[in-house]
Batch of 4 targets.
Target 1
Amino acid sequence: MKTLERDGRSGGGKTRFSPVILIVDDQPMTLSALRRMFVREGYQVHTAANGPAALELLEQIECELVISDYLMPRMNGLELVRRIRERWPRVSCVMLTGLADLDIAAIGIRDRLLCKFVLKPWHGPDLKASVLEAILAGRERAAPGLAPGG
Amino acid sequence: MAVRQPDFGWIYELYRLAHHAALADDPHESRQKFLKHIVDAFSATGGSLCEVDERRQSLTIVAGIGLPKHVVGSTVAIGTGILGWVADHGQPLLLNGELGCDRRFRKRVRRGSHRPESAMCWPLIVEDRTIGVISISRGAGEPSFSMEDLYRGFDAIRFVAIALENARLHTRAAQSVRRVNELMSRAEATEGHLQRTEKMALLGQLAAGVAHEINNPVAYIGSNLVTLKDYAEDLLEVVARYEAALEQRSGDTATIEDARGGIDLEHTRRDLRALIEESLEGVSRVHQIARNLKDFSHSGDTTCAPADLREGLERTLAIVHGEISRKADIVRRYGDIPLVECRLSQINQVFMNLIVNAAQAIDGRGTITIATGVLSDRVWIEVTDTGCGIGPEDLPRVFEPFFTTKPVGVGTGLGLSISASIVERHAGSIEMESVPGEGTTVRVWLPITQAGDRDGQTVVRSAAS
């Protein structure tokens, strides 16, 4: 379950923008497509196939943001992000789902569990922008005035 | 007297005619002949044959001689008119001269209306029931009937009344059979319609799941294509730089190294094939879903053909995957089964219904076990869930149409009754066992071969592999 991809582009001497993210989805192909998209953007990408596996992985890695599906076996995405936000309040969460359920989005936003709710099929540039925005907002909260740092 | 002696030959012929009326295709024609036989024997000029209706409230004139045409088919209330009086009292009646003079009919007939000079009326009696009335008449100027004529005719007619009753029962039975056939064909048409409606309702329930199933591959294929575009741009960029380096005819490896500057071709090269393979697999996944849906919604397959039921189960599972996967783990215990002669799209509908029911019975998360097996000339397919189960009070009712324990809007209440009728039409059977709180098992039994195709179409047979 644990994968770590290095940034595709070889950087120069300066500090690269290389945040660690975790993507959770029960479809391996979806994970694969998202991983290659974010790796290309310079992210360090971890993946997990379900909620419990994601929680286990988060105990071992430092991660800034989680992208999670909603419909998954064993634990749904909302339950997962609730647990993540309880245990790691500084991790931002984005829900990426094919289920256009406004209730889920409303609960997620109301309970401050989600900073973005994105529908599948996703639009690459939008998803990238949403994730970047969430990460920068998270860094701003953690250390005001310093974002975007490395 | 012109009255022919009602001898044995005449009575036999009368009986034959009455009996014929029981079997004839044209009941009116045969009754007409029967009446004519009597009219001729008594040298009468006219006559009528009436039958008492089922509720014993009116008489219908079913045959007539020397009567205006519209009279045949008309009805008379029992107790009114002369015929009504005879039917009511069950007694023969001789009328001679002006009817109005007879005290019994003073209030029953209009004065001055045209009436025959002489008439005889006989009730047709079977086991103390009056089933009809025969009347014959002579016009003015003809000799009158006598009491002897009346009783001689009554004896003969009493004898054949039973044959006429048979005729009537036969007609009624034929009508009933026709009505039953009509109702059956109507029911069959309705059932076919319901079956399709239920199927569409089932699909409707699954639509969100199916959309999800399709969205997933579409999402990653789309995303991969965007990445592929980036990869292609990188590759084209490197190629362009190589070409430029060649143009300068510089053998300097540093220039060639420069051409790759900032572009990680290693990663692209490693990932490119995977990206394409995964995307192609996604396309075939969408294609498969579309094909499964088409197979499922196909309603035109009316012929039985040998089919692999395990493949049917797999296709059905593929359609319902989105709906099921978040509620249950699927456990397959497929035993070897031969090809089974059936209408596969209908049998798939049964499978889908059983699997969706199983998933809907599960509160939270559970397991659905699907098993197959064979026992002599029959196969069985079993769907077991770890759901809420069905109480013993509901269990006998689950195959009833419109019986449902699901909330309004979930299910039509027709799924199991339609499944049962599909299985029945395949000469199979369906059984259910349930323990409340533990789960339910539904078992479908199907014969491996169909004895004869109900639609009269040839059953395609081939050796089971």
Target 2
Amino acid sequence: MNIQPQLIKDCINRNRRSEYELYKLTYSYLMSISIRYTRNQDLAKEYLNVGFLKILSNLEKYKEEIPFKAWIRKIMINTLIDEYRKQKKHIEVIDYVDYHYDNSDYAELNSALDHINTNDIYKLITQLPPMAQQVFNLFVIDGYSHKEIGEILNIEEGTSKWHLNSARTKLKEILEQMVTPYRIEAS
Amino acid sequence: MKDMYNFEKNLKKKLDENEFPFDEKNWEKASAMIDASRSNKKPFMFFMLSAIALLVTTGAVYFFYNSSPDNSTENLLAVNNSSIQVKETSLNAVDYPNEINTVSKESKNIQTDPSTPVSEPASSLTAHKSGKTENYIKSHITSNNKHSEETANIASAENNNNKNNPSANLTSGKSDFKNTSASNKPGSNSNTSATTNAGNYDKAKNTTVKEIPVVLGSNSGNNLSGKTNSSNTPENANTNKLGNIVNPVAANVNPAISQSKVTDSVPAVRAVTDNTLIVNSIDSVNIIPSLVTDSTAFAISIAAPFQAKKTTDFLYAEAGASYLLGWNSNGIQEANGFNLVAGFNYLHYFNTIISFGIGAQYTSINNLSQSTYTVSRVNYDFGVSKDITSIKYIRLHYVTVPVKLGFNVGKNNVIGVGANISMLLTDEYRDERHHTNNAEPMTDNNQLSTKKGNGYFAGFNPYDIQASVFYRRKLAKGLSINAEFGYGLMDIKNNSHFKNGNFEKSTGGKLTLCYDLFKK
């Protein structure tokens, strides 16, 4: 993603063509973030638009010394967390599931990961319980600490850890099911 | 543990490397959202600027009409009685400030004019100049008493040919310059009392009253020497039980214009200080008395408009219906229809024109037909199945705080501007759950459950603000009708939640009946 300063200036001046260019250039990156935090691709696209609108409306505040990619990533994640908060109650009602922590080794899964395409990985993540999905994304993929996650999601630090463990356990369960055919092939 | 971290590292790498093909259709949606967000600001700004312009204009008109030329005279009369009314026509008729100055400086040869009509109406008192005589009628204070009607007059006269130069006095038992007992005794000579009072006043003020230019009615030099008017005897003037107002030239009093009637219990003129004349129980104040001294021109004027004390605070119940225009959603007009409105309002009048109101009301938004939120969970078992939950919203319930600034137009009409600040209390929705296999549509056959619920309103803005204009008309005592138009300033529905770029405004009209519950 190579965003020229002139393009940003044109977007600040509300040049629709430039806005289109920026959207096109950032679409894939923003979508890769959005889809991890949502339950399906349609919703991910919708949130992507909300995030892009926030990016456009805050472009005047952007400082060039900050990498543009990191800046829009931060805005996109904040947007997704906001949207999650809004529908948190609803999702929890219909999707809450208990998980047991399982810390067995990942060596086999690690090698199986090479055989799984990225779309399946997204599906894996979307099958996690909503809160576990958010915590997993924030901690594992986006590099937030449990303390930061606690503040973002308004939960205790320990609760964040619990959700991360439940996410890992659930992922492992699903992955084991997915890699079974590869095991059979290998044997 | 190390394997787990490596696994997650690889997972992250794979996710970061993934490319999503650009979706042109999604850009069209984004473009619509951008347009909507930018156009939303324009009506808000337009409305706010219009409201400010309306307020400024109304305020300017109000202050313009309340700063009439009659108020150019100093307001030296403090009136703390509710029964005072002012006949402004008489104030207009007397161009007294100039005349006072004329009298005070050029009154050496003034004589009373015998030709002045005796029966001159009180409401049209004017200063008369005729030949060597000038009479300036400055004051006429009238009040009514059911039990007794005693005449009190405030008058003064000056005749430089007369060395006894009677001075009008405004005296009171509570005044700064005390009246002598002699002045109040029945049968005492009015001229004597006048002289005495003048002297007292001089002492009290420590100044010299050179010219007292107020003469009542038709006077002559003879009158000053004690000729009495049959309807206004010295007894009438001086036997005032209250001793509050003593007419120094009672013999000269014109009954037609000296109708100050003082009650037994309440003094007509309660006190006179350097700057203030306090009047009680006066029904009408027609003319302005004036005393001119070396140091200061002591004038009593009346700042119009004096109004009787009015009810300024109201608590009223309001109930009726609102009609929302609704909004277009997927080609269907949603939220269009009538809603119940009920609540209480408090209204405070700052003055006779401007009022401020605030209240608490219940209202709702009915007929939600295009507000369905669907969440699906895909299960990869033997084939693909979906657990789908649909939340179909039916109605939103709000508590509203109406804030209104009203302007009286005429006796029974009020127009104004305001804002209705609403907070979403709860909602009603239908929760439907389906289980579908292999992408089959949701039907009654695969419906697992359906139930009504409330309290879940994710996707709706918790607040709403309407800018409003209203018209209220009094129908009967304590009952009025209120018509209001409100323009929604906030988006009712969250676009990302409902996957659209619409701006759903709560714009519409309201018709309510208002009934006064309490007023003071």
Target 3
Amino acid sequence: MSKKSEEPEIVGIEVIRKAGVNVEQLVEKLVKGVAAELTTYYYYTILRMHLTGLEGEGLKEIAEDARLEDRMHFELMTPRVYELGGRLPHDIREFADMAACPDAFLPDDWKDPKSILKVLLSAEQCAIRVWSEVCDMTIGKDPRTYDLAQRIVTEEIEHEAWFLELLHGRPSGHFRRRFPGEGPRSAK
Amino acid sequence: MWTSVANVKELERGALKKIVMGNIVLVVYLENDSSALAFDATCPHKGGPLALGEINDRRIRCPWHGYEFSLSNGLPVKIPYDQKYGKWRNTGNLGVYKTRISEGVIFVDI
């Protein structure tokens, strides 16, 4: 029996390829996207720890919601990578280096909570660009990936709005989550 | 191989147009009625969509991380992140293509 005949038929891939999706390119983008979510989760842990003092105390909870939801985004989209025949790099260093967004490093002037908020805002804005691009690549062609990506981008837009409100006083239109890391769109 | 990708009349001068030809995805930019630029649609850094970028002085700026590439030779000319970002900041070169315009049609050497 030839190797080719042993390979199973994967209708879930075949149909989206026929619809015009470049599956390899999509998988590469998804891996970079989930890498950004996981590295952001890691860096947000550090940022949240440094939201100190009276002002920082009130911001911790919001940073914590964004942190936990970014991890949920990683959890939500990673299975899709494997469904599409892709995989995560087996070395986490390689994974971190390919992330679609830059490291959300703790700023030197972290004692000013606004400097941390700027890092958080920048990370959310990067994530919006990445998942919007995935939505553009998949709309009308790959309903499953589109569904997951639009759930993620919806929450990232909410996160951006929170941080914009805190930094610039621009009303976000959102109230607090019901519990830390609720993930109203990304919870499984 | 010279391949026709667009008519000059279809393109707005100064606008970026994404062109899909099978697995090849290009961006075409009309400088004037006799000159066009063509390059890969995906940023070689982290895959940002260059059709949404900005061109200045024959450089394309990626909308994701602000990397800039020469459209003459594809080399990175601006990397906005310092050494602290380690290997993450590394990038390849951008694929750029020869172009010619003949009788109102843009051809790209693919």
Target 4
Amino acid sequence: MAMIRKILIPLIALMLILVGSELLYTQIFYPNDLRQYAPMGFFSDKPLLQQAQVVYLGESSNHTFVVEDEDRRKVSDMVADYFPALRCADITQDAAHAEVYYHLLRRIPEEAPVQTVVVTMNLRSMGPSWFDTGLETALQKQLVLLKDQPNLLKRLLLGLKAYDHRTTEECQKDLKEYWRQHPLEGDHADVLGWADSVGGVGANFIKKYAFELGLEDNALVRKFDEIAALSKARGWNLVFHILPINLELSDSLVGTELRQIIYRNRDLVKRHYEQMGVTVVDNVDLLPDSLFLDKDWPTEHFNERGRRMVAERIAQAVAPLHAGQYRPYESIPRTPRYHYEHHCEDEVPWGGFKSLTFEKSYSGQRSSVISSDDPFGTTLELWTRDLPKGITSVDVGCWLYQPSVRHDGKLALELSGSEHDGRWEGKPLQELNETTGRWVPISYTFELDSALYKNPTIKIYVMNTTPTKIYVDDVVIDFR
Amino acid sequence: MLFNSLAFLIFFPIVTIGFYAVAHRFRWLWLLAASCVFYMWFVPRYILILLATILIDYSAAIIIERTDVRKQRLAWLWVSVSATCLILFVFKYLGFFEQTVIDIAGMLGMSTNLKVAQIVLPIGLSFHTFQSLSYVIEVYRGTQKAERHLGIYSLYVMFYPQLVTGPIERPHNLLRQLREEKRLNRDNVAQGLMLMVFGLFAKMVLADNWGAIVDAVYAHPEQYSSLSIVGGLFGYSLQIYCDFFGYSTIALGCAKVMGYDITDNFRAPYLSRSIGEFWHRWHISLSTWFRDYVYIPLGGSRVRVSRWVLNTMVVFLLSGLWHGAAWTFVLWGGLHGLCLVAEGLPSRLRRQKPAQRAAWRIVPTFVAVTLLWSLFRAQDIGQLQAVYAAMLHNAGVGALLPVKGPVMLMTLVFVMMDIGLRDSRFDKVLIRRSRVVQWAVCAILIFCTIVFSSVEEYPFIYFQF
């Protein structure tokens, strides 16, 4: 009996400590850790996403970074244009792939009204050049907190760096080993030899896309399979959207043999998932070279027209799944606006998205953080031709949080993008409000003249090049 | 293998349970195998370097013991020391040496075909080299019998808890214990685990979180206010202490769980009242190594004042060089030596015993140590200049230190514990308390370690030595 007590009491004490610690961590610390270290997971918890009927999961192909685009919105937002009565939401994370999507989808509650899930499928992400790079480390770190384990255990694993975090040298070594063990069929068995013989950007196309996809042994395919199984279990319509590849450029640099390898892989996954009842949107050869942004690296980034074409194909595939909800492109309204607001949550068409943070907020959950790490905050960027005629000034107002006045933060207006002189004007934030340590409203009016219309673009943003973090929320802009 | 890794979290219980499960006569083999796995987790092929050091010093010690002629004994000692130091020189100092030659040639307007060797330093090379050297020297002096069992001797050099960053053990302490039969003892296990928990807290919560702050300040000092830079300098004092103290404490704990007592490496060093006292409290195993094998053979302190100054400076310049192959380390060691000379010179000139120093001297000593650490932290003299220039010019301007509330709170708790413990040790104090207190303290420390640990990877600073 004494022996049992000797073992039982510590065991019960240990259990109580573990359960208590888990509860304490989950209630107090976990949400903040999720915000900081796995923002994708935090996005998936937010009401907007959990109330959506169409959920779009994408990576960098979803958004753009070119000034020339008239409409700088994401592919997912363009898809939403076609379904005005449906609530659509997206989670976009650079370099994300099926493993990340799978864990995010698992987080959507059973009772959420999701009907359709659109998942980006990047053929490049299934190849060895994707996994054996440093890009993967940041994602693996996020995945630790997204997995289905007790929260305290996940935090411990994060602290112990218990995820795939290979060095660049290790990745290179693994990549070479993969190519050695997986020769291609046909004339170019040696992938590296082929790439070396081509050189330049062509070599990168070969390294990224020249692989024989295996349905059984590919980790990404297995994750897409799990997504399909999860969607089936949850009763969601699943749409896999195979991203366009710049085949025109690839043909000119490498020859058509690479195109054939890509087609083989595309056909394999398409057949595989269509047999599973998944809607597959095949956009592999949809876009010509002129609609791709990057010419010196094989990526899947498209300009506005490219994104619109991709969105249209996805919308057409989604349309049968939501009968009567689809409207054609021609009927999407476009009217000039005087008033713009940005609450730093997830709205478009603003730039500076990467500055959004959960660290502080005046309203909602996020604000825009600006410091030397990311010196430009959430940015309004418009074509001046889209503005109403006769504008003479613009009122800019927002809420500001500055921990100290030791920064060079400015509210800035920039007219640029042409051979004209342009204009840049920055109003120091300290001159607008010196209060520190709490949210305060600031406002300023920039005077404009007819030179406004000579410059193609207008940008309004807050900038700060010092390490002191300043925060901006609920920006309101009125052109007068 | 890092102590703060998942691999070690699995490795440690397996090795410990296995240690108690196997018969005493096979334990050396079990521990040696475990130590090999532990070391090879980093770069497997570097175990060959360790093997070379082991074989050289093992053979030399036996030969020295068998030789009666003093000159021959001395010759064998030199063979052993030279061969061991040659390995250290090639892997640690060759690049530095070549770079220095190139720089000097450049200053003299001469050209040279010399290229700087790009050799990756095997982890912990300086530590096990010194541990191995201390064995041969002790055998030469006749204070230690040569170990005939190659396995036991290999384990002495490779004992995994202190293999890569010390403490630098002496044969009379560790070698003796490796032959003793260790029995499972509740207090040993409890004390060992307490030490490991405390060490992990110091490393994962304090050292790594302060590491991020210090890195930010040193990377862009021009962006921070004077006060923030001062904070960054003191932050580094805290980082390096918690880092090294943390690692040493985990090492102590790992060994203690198996019943081995290895040398305490720290005794609240920042509570020292002089630089001299600081070196009695900081990295004690290295200080005593230099004292026993360099300072005293040079004549120690019982010599003329000028000779004493020379001896002190030699020891500290060597100590600086031991830490790293860069002039900043040499300068750091030299300045510590000068401080020690400045402290001791007045009493030596008056031929009096040094007076007891007042408690208020803790503050200037800590400030001096902190300022000297900046040499240790800076990548080069240029970065050091940038830090101090910004500190002098950024009064009232620049960013505040990006330190978070929980880190400050944990730091405060740690500082208070360090002051409270002073000359005692965490496990020795805690083991005297009731079980409830022991459990509560450990549970809180584990919880804080998990919740507030840094998610960025900062290798142990002393790994590079």
